[in-house]
Design goal:
- This protein has 1 helix and 5 strands; from the N terminus they run E-E-E-E-E-H.
- By secondary structure, it is an alpha+beta fold.
- The chain has one domain.
- The chain has a 5-stranded antiparallel β-sheet with strand order 1-2-3-4-5.
- The longest helix has 26 residues.
């Protein structure tokens, strides 16, 4: 589970078995885990996060999207 970014209480990561899926990132805080597709950016599952937190998370992803996609491609060799 490579962690690609930490911002405040949020950990952004993907699972090593995620290679077969479209490019995405998982976001974790405490016992909550959301999933967001990166191309284009869209919420897949909110994992118990509130709407306001999802909004914050999506803004972080928008600002870091290129780096997240690069980390995915570096890890999976795409």
């Amino acid at each position: 589970m490579p962690t690609i970014l930490r911002v405040g209480p949020y950990r952004f990561f993907f699972y090593s078995g995620d290679m077969e899926e479209a490019i995405h990132v998982h976001i974790e805080r405490d016992d909550k885990i959301a999933k967001v597709w990166l191309d284009p950016i869209r919420l897949h599952s909110s994992g118990g996060f509130s709407r306001s937190e999802i909004s914050k998370i999506l803004k972080i992803i928008e600002s870091k999207r290129e780096a997240m996609m690069e980390a995915w491609n570096d890890y999976f060799g795409n």
